[in-house]
Amino acid sequence: MLVRVKSNPDGKEDWVLIELQGDVDTSNGEHMKSQNIGDFHFAKDGTPILIIGYHILYGKDTPMSKPIAVLKKKSNSEGCLNEEHPAEYTVIAIAKRKIIFKTRPKRIVNHFITQ
Amino acid sequence: MESVRDTCLRTAEDVLDTLQLANIDEADLNGITQILQFTPNSNKNSDIKLLELDTHLLNVLNEGDCLSFCGEKHEPAVLCTKDRTYDIKEAETSNSWMLVPNFKFAEETQSNERIIERRDVKGIYHTYFEVHNCKPKLSKLLVVLEPSSFKGMEYEQNLDRGTLYDWHRLKSEIQASEEELKRALTDYMIINIDGYFRLISFEYEARALTLMLDLIDENSWELDDIDKDVTYESLKELIPWPVFEGLFNAYTEVSEKTKSDGTSLYRYNEEKTCKFLAKVLLAACPKNDYKEFMEAWRIGTPENMEPKESYLSGVALIIYNSSKTRKEVISFPSVNLSDNINTRFSELFKVKDKWTIDEITPYVSGLTTDKLNVNALLTKYTRCSKVNGIKYYSTKHGK
Questions:
Q1: Domain for residue B278, yes or no?
Q2: I want to staple B64 with a disulfide (CB 3.0 to 4.6 A). Which of A9, A62, B85, B135 is the partner?
Q3: Are residues B81 and B194 in the same domain?
């Protein structure tokens, strides 16, 4: 059985991969849709800064030695799939850079209280 | 996490308020702020897979070529490019991966005033496919082609046509890239007969090669005087063209001599020919007295060809049988050994305690990869000792 992964050199986007420690979740367990996650800034020296809720994260922008391709499965409704080719993927994007936040988040509220 | 709960759109003021709260001076930041947000479409991940790429895979995709996942339902899938095969494994990340299209990096976010831009996050992921360049999985090739192997014209009528493999069927069942598969077809002397790929049965190969070699004597050819056309003409009733072509190419090389019309003459490759004739002898009798074997072998090979002990490498072993106090030649073909490295080494050390590098190489070279050559394999899996200045490899654990 062969499952093809098609690549269109022009139709592919560059995405970024943002790596966070732990998981991102809503505080009230609501489904995550149409919600703000956080504000992403770059400091003048290039340091990525992400503010999520009352947490500040300082990150690092690094090229990935092994980039990540994003493959999207072709839905069967498009009709060109059959028993021999039960599925097909298209490369829709490649992430070549990642921004990694690996330090523990700082809590804003601490500053706030001490002020 | 207040802001995550917040469903209304954040404004520039909200962003600045937060900065103030966080004690960050706005002047230290680039002008463009990107607000990461989920959309109703985020996290519909069931149809999205992440695939790690090495340089080769990246180049393939950048050139617009296809990759393919390959494997039957019961096999672990592999990923193939045109000329390489990769093992794939679903790996879990301990951290969360957020994928964001249209993202602006530090160098693109400079601006004199605060600009708020929204970025839709595609989703959060915790798994991806890890890839490792590997050897093509070719052991299955011989298994699936065995039932349809070519045994001679007289057997063709009784052939079960359902066992035949054309290129398409082969490609979809064998986990190897196209180039590797093509190379394997040549290596294993698999021949395209009327569009189907066929192994040549050992018995038929033995019969055909013997007929071909007999012509040397019959025509009083020198060893480097072999005429391909005459050989084919004499045997065409018995050997169909594609089989003849395959056999002839496998066993001969172009000689320096040419015919009067300028076309090439050929010579049989001594090592390949002798090796095959040894296999024929060993098939009839797998265990032989050394002297008797060498004598029979010499008689069986065409005149002027000289069978050498070294030609037996990968086919047979020469060992000393202490119970019969004699040197023996025993059949030991490398193709019958396990593909698992550990099992292979234990099989090898079971039949013989100590191996020189020349002896063991043909039995392990099939297990090497780009990163692990024969020497590295031996270092990792065996113990090396020196006797009279000769290096021997023996089992790592044990006496």
A1: no
A2: A9
A3: no
- The CATH number covering residue B345 comes to 1.10.10
Say yes or no: B121 and B171 in one domain.
Answer: no
- Which pLDDT tens digit goes with each residue over B286-304? 999 999 999 999 999 998 8
Domain extents for chain A?
A: 4-19+36-114
Structure tokens at B108: 């693109």
Q: How far is B338 from chain A (nearest CA, A)?
A: 25
| d(C-alpha A105, C-alpha A59), whole Å | 10
- A36, B3: Cβ pair inside 8 Å? yes
Q: Where do we find the tokens 């052939």? A: B159
C-alpha–C-alpha distance, residues A41 and B5, integer Å: 20
State the smallest CA–CA distance between residue B75 and chain A in angstroms.
10
A34: nearest CB among B7, B34, B58: B7
- Residues B184 and B207 reside in one and the same domain: no
Does the beta carbon of A20 lie under 8 angstroms from any beta carbon of chain B?
A: yes
Amino acid at B335: V
Whether residue B183 is found in the same domain as residue B225: no
Please answer whether residues A54 and A109 qualify as being in contact, where contact means their C-beta atoms are separated by less than 8 angstroms.
Answer: yes
- Do the Cβ atoms of A108 and B22 come within 8 Å? yes
Q: Are B196 and B148 in contact (CB under 8 A)?
A: yes
Q: Structural domain tally of chain B?
A: 5
For every residue of B201-238, DSSP letters joined together read PHHHHHHHHHHHHHHHHHTT--TT-B-HHHHHHHHTTT
- Any idea of the CA torsion for B354, B360, B364, B365, to the nearest 10 degrees? 160
φ, ψ at A33 (rounded to 5°): -145, 145
- The SS3 of residue B356 is coil
Judging contacts by C-beta atoms under 8 Å, the chain B residues touching residue A25 are: 1, 4
- Residue contact B65–A32, C-beta within 8 A: no
A40 and B33 in contact by Cβ < 8 A? Answer: yes
Predicted confidence at residue A13, as pLDDT, reads 85
Cα distance from B198 to chain A (closest Cα, Å)? Answer: 21
Gap between the Cα atoms of A40 and B118, Å rounded: 10
Residue of B nearest to A65 (CA): B54
Q: Do B69 and A2 touch (CB under 8 A)?
A: yes
In the prediction, which pLDDT does B368 show? 84
Q: Which amino acid is present at B274? A: C
* Residue stretches of chain B with pLDDT short of 50: 1-7
Contact A72 B47 (CB under 8 A): yes
| Cβ-based contacts of B2 with chain A (< 8 Å) | 27, 53-54
Strand partners, A2: B70
Spatial distance between the Cα atoms of B242 and B253, rounded to a whole number of angstroms: 17
Beta strands in A36-102, from DSSP E residues, in sequence order: 36-42, 48-52, 55-58, 60-73, 88-101
Domain enclosing residue B245, as ranges? 202-268
- Interface size A-B, in CB pairs within 8 Å, comes to 234
pLDDT in tens, A79-93: 555 556 678 899 999
Distance CA B2, CA A36 (A): 10
